[in-house]
Structures are given as C-alpha cells and as structure tokens.
Specification:
The protein is built from eleven helices and twelve strands. The protein has about 400 residues and is α+β, with helices and mostly antiparallel strands. The strands form three sheets. Strands 2-1-5-4-3 form a five-stranded antiparallel β-sheet. A five-stranded mixed β-sheet has the order 7-9-10-12-11, with helices on one face. Strands 6-8 form a two-stranded antiparallel sheet.
C-alpha cells in the first residue's frame, strides 16, 4: 500500500504528462500535468478514445496503429519515441515528445504514454534560427561591401544586445520556473554564444575593432544572463538546503587581489577598484567560495550603480579573531523607504530605473553570510553612495 501511494504521488506531481490507455485506445487514466497540457479535466477524457487528443491525420489513423502493433509486434504506434502533435480542447495544436511503453497488468495490455511539452523549446529554437540566419546574412554581405556590411553588423549587434538586456529583467520568476531554468536557458544561451563566435571568426580577416567590440557586447550580455540564471539556481539550492559551507584557512590578501583583478575587467570606463588589507595577519578560516560569491555580488552592484570615473573601495581587516569586509561606492544610493526591504528576494529599489537586475543578489548575499556565521550591515544615502560591511568570527 505504501509503494502504491508513493507511485500515485509521483504520477500526480510529475512535471510531464502521463496517460494510460487500454488495447482499444480508450483512456483509463490521466495525470494533472497532462490535463493542464490538453486543457481537459479527467472526467472529460477518461473512457474516450485517445485520438480525441490528436489532430488529423493521426486522429483518424491511431486505431490502425494500435491494431498493426498488436498484430506485428512492431513499434508502429503513433509517436513511438519521437516528436508528435497534440490537440488541446480549444482546438490549438502543440508539439510534444512521446514515449510509449507496454505493460502487462492483470492479464491485459496497458499502454502508458509519457508526454514532454516541447512548446518553449520550439519557440527558443525558432528565435535562435532567426538570430543565426540574420547574423550569417550580415557576414555574407560583408564580402560585397565592407563599409555597408560593417554598418549593418554593428546595428544588428546593438539590437541583440538590447534584446538580451531586456531579458535580464526576468526577476519575477517563481519556484516552478526555477526548476526548469537550467534546461530552458542554457541551451539557447550556448547557441547565441556560438553564433557570436561564428561571426567573430568570419570577421577576423577584416581586422575591424568595432566588430570585435560589438561581438564582445553580445558575449558580455550572454554572460550577464548566465549570471542571472546562476542567481536563480543559487536561490533554488538555498531553498532546498543544498548549500553546505566548507571552512578552510586561506590567504585574504591573495584572495582579495584576485577578486579585484577579476572585477576590474568588468568595471566601467575609468572605474577603479581599490583593495586594501589591514591587520597583523592575512590568514583566516572561513568558506572562501561563499565569501567570494558575496564580495563579487557587492562589487558588481557597486559597478552597476556607480558612474564612470569613480572609485570603489574594497577593504578587508583581521583583528581579534574577527574578519571585516567593506565594499563602498559613491553611486546612486538606496532610498530610505526601500532600505527595510533590501534583502528580500526579487526586491529592487525604486531608483534603479533601467539598470538591469533580478533583485536576488543581496538576498543570496545575506543568506550566504548567515551560513558562514556572519552578519551584514549597510549605510546608504541617495546620490552619495552605499557601504556594505560583512563581519565574521574565526571558525
């Protein structure tokens, strides 16, 4: 009974649709995910032929597929291990991947169909095809007219860059989306990155710095989106309790210099990150990976919310078995009314305007700091900047 209850719970909560039919093609069961996909309630389809969920010509041919399979033993069942179309209650058609298995149960044959919706994947593929075709056309035109091609190529890069910047504002995704984020985003992001590399390769012979600059913008935008995806996945791991700190001794000066060098590469024009360590020792025992994530997040915000030609202070201090980390900028600051909500997930201050972000970074920082037995404090004033202070005791 316990195994049966477990199996029922798995089927009822499965992300993919699951439908069972008898040897005559009559639907015997359908799980909630399949009901959502086809827009039917269980009572509307159970007892009916499964062809009610199929568009022509499969709708008319399905019974023949079953009979042929039963007579020959060969996998002629519609959609066996391949991509097929489904018919929703409202008459719309959608693509899905169907896996069919035959089960002997109580002296009779039952066929189980596993349905994976491909709608989003197909839409993403079409968008990527459009990007790739457009970029290839621009490169081909470059062989006809250098000046004309470069102009259009730069325009295309700006359009793609703006599009990617808009996609970074996907800050209101809920937990169900987080579980699909890795699958839904990593493949198209890799394809966009590959298209940019392809354009860069074709344009090498022209040695035009403007082409490289705008290709770099595409790569940077893809990197930003990857960072957003990582924020969501970090949040998911935190929610699931999968983040376990590992305390080890490390050299703070080397650690701080490496972070400074890394973040200086992504700073704005003439933005300078100034690192300084004080204290009688530079060795401290903490989780360097989680600490690095916190510091990079804070410096990234300082870069993002400060203008060009500015300084960002990054300081570490060890005194009396205590580590203090300070990241300070002179950027736009945080409105006083927003400060009490600053560490809430998906919250963004009202003065951020068009500056991209998910509102997850500081929430993750606060939770990571808590995991490694630290505290986080901040001071901020609009148009005068913000200072974050992380404090940790020796582990």
């Amino acid at each position: 009974m316990e195994n049966a209850a477990l199996l029922k719970a798995i089927i009822e909560n499965a992300i993919d649709g699951i439908i069972t039919i008898n040897s005559h093609g009559i639907i015997e069961s359908i799980n909630p995910a399949a009901c959502n996909l086809f827009q039917y309630s269980p009572g509307e389809v159970i007892g009916k032929n499964v062809s009610v969920l199929m568009p022509p010509p499969d709708k008319e041919l399905h019974d023949g597929y079953i009979n042929r399979y039963q007579n020959t033993g060969k996998a002629h069942i519609i959609g066996f291990g391949r991509e097929v179309k489904g018919l929703k209650k409202d008459g719309s058609v959608f693509p899905f991947r169907l896996g069919v298995s035959e089960v002997q149960f109580s002296g009779r044959k039952i066929y189980t169909g596993f349905i994976h919706d491909l709608t989003r994947e197909k839409e993403a593929e079409e968008r990527l095809k459009d990007y790739a075709v457009h970029l290839e056309e621009l490169v081909e035109e470059r062989t006809i007219s250098l000046k004309h091609s470069v102009s259009e190529l730069l325009q295309a890069k700006e359009e793609v860059s703006l599009s990617l910047e808009k996609e970074k504002e996907l800050g209101q995704m809920k937990s169900r989306f987080v579980s699909m984020a890795s699958h839904e985003f990593r493949t198209p992001l890799s394809s966009i990155q590959l298209s940019a590399i392809l354009v860069e390769k074709y344009a090498q012979e022209f040695s035009n710095p403007n082409i490289s600059k705008h290709i770099a913008k595409i790569k940077t935008s893809v990197g930003n989106l990857t960072g957003i995806l990582n924020d969501f996945l970090s949040l998911e791991k935190l929610e699931a309790g999968k983040v376990e700190p590992v305390f080890t001794e490390f050299n703070l000066v080397k650690f701080g210099e490496e972070i400074t060098e890394e973040m200086q590469l992504v700073a704005k024009q003439n933005q300078n990150i100034i690192y300084q360590h004080t204290g009688t020792t530079s060795v401290f025992k903490l989780d360097p990976a989680l600490l690095k994530n916190c510091i990079i997040n804070l410096i990234s915000n300082a870069i993002k919310y400060s203008g060009e030609n500015t300084f960002i202070e990054f300081n570490t201090e060890v005194a009396s078995d205590q580590l203090v980390v300070v990241v300070k900028d002179n950027g736009i600051g945080i409105p006083e009314n927003d400060q009490k909500h600053l560490f809430e997930a998906f919250f963004r201050a009202h003065n951020t305007g068009n500056i991209s972000g998910t509102g997850l970074g500081l929430n993750i920082v606060a939770r990571y700091v808590g995991l490694i037995n630290g505290t986080v404090q901040f001071e901020s004033k609009v148009n005068y900047g913000t200072s974050f202070t992380l404090t940790f005791s020796q582990s």
